[in-house]
Amino acid sequence: MTAAFLAITFGLALLVWSADRFVEGSASTARHFGMPPLLIGMVIVGFGTSAPEMVVSAISAMQGNPGIALGNAYGSNITNIALILGVTALLSPIVVHSQVLRKELPILAGITALAAWQIYDGEITRIDALVLLGVFAGLMGWTIWQGMQKRPDVLGSEMEQELDVRAMPLRRAVAWLVVGLILLIASSRILVWGAVTVAHGFGVSDLIIGLTVVAVGTSLPELASSVIAARKGEHDIALGNILGSNLFNTLAVVGIAGAIHPLTVGPEVFSRDIMVMAALTVSLFIIGYGFRGAGRINRFEGTALLACYIGYTAYLVSSIFAP
């Protein structure tokens, strides 16, 4: 059991480090090949920060652990909104200026409704997974079209400044991309093994481990990048990280896992986890959209989001000890 705890600790640390290197390398490589900053922020960074969830859930599905695969995806979405945005807004209230992000908020709400409808019968079939991946492909096409437009946008301007600060030679950028990806896969395998071993050793379900330890661990890249962006006043990047990650998690992460191996889950996933995720997504749409101007997530709303995360996690922990 000691080896399993060490595997989780080491796996999470290596996962966060390798994800950061992967994002930095891929973003710089894309910049060298002339990709617009807005497109880098929405696609490359969104994909990179969700890479930990993607790899962990894919490995979990291949190994027959659907609880970790789904718990990681949906738990990361809950963590992103309630914990990460809550902490970020407490440090620095988030003002949403980007028109692109304001368009993504209702899209995220709609995709969450699709996820709830699919999971209602207690399984994600391969057909469900292909639908998710099809929607994801369509959304990526729309995103690329948006990013290729030359219209000025606050998110694109903030991303361009960030890329200028982190500029690196092409050879180093490609090296970090490759090294980050290899270590990302290796650390994910270590993490999944440790999480499954601990779950079985303590009689805890894979789902609970996926919703808590694994979800928080794979969301650490979003936490670091959102807090740093908010402290720099790059509010649209801070929110863009979360929206991009949640879209990738709901569509690509669950879609890939379900395509590898159909996922069967208990009714509590719909009645508890999906409902919490849906409520948080709707609340984010309401407070972040800004129906009469720029959206804003203030410190009071950040505190409310953080309280929701603490309450949800406490409920999960209490369910472990319930008779």
Structure description:
The relative contact order is 0.23. The protein has a two-stranded antiparallel sheet. It contains eleven helices and four strands, in the order αααβαβαααααβαβα. It has helices at 2-32, 37-62, 66-91, 99-119, 126-148, 154-165, 170-202, 206-231, 235-260, 268-289, 299-321; strands at residues 94-96, 123-124, 263-264, 295-297. The two termini are 24 Å apart. Helix 3 packs parallel to helix 10 (268-289) and helix 4 runs antiparallel to helix 10 (268-289). Helix content is 83%, strand content 3%. The protein is globular and about 55 Å long. It has a single domain (2-321), classed as Up-down Bundle (A middle domain of Talin 1), CATH 1.20.1420. It is mainly α and 323 residues long.
Which terms summarize this structure?
mainly alpha, 323 residues, 4 strands, two-stranded antiparallel sheet, 11 helices, A middle domain of Talin 1
Number of helical runs? 11
Determine the N-to-C terminus distance: 24 Å
Count of distinct strands? 4
Radius of gyration: 18 Å
At the first level of CATH, what is the class? Mainly Alpha
Second-tier CATH architecture: Up-down Bundle
Main beta sheet: strand number and arrangement?
Answer: 2 strands, antiparallel
> How would you classify the helix and strand content by structural class?
mainly alpha
Share of helix, binned: over 70%
Per DSSP, what share of the residues sits in E-state strands of 2 or more residues? Answer: under 5%
Find the CATH superfamily: NCX, central ion-binding region
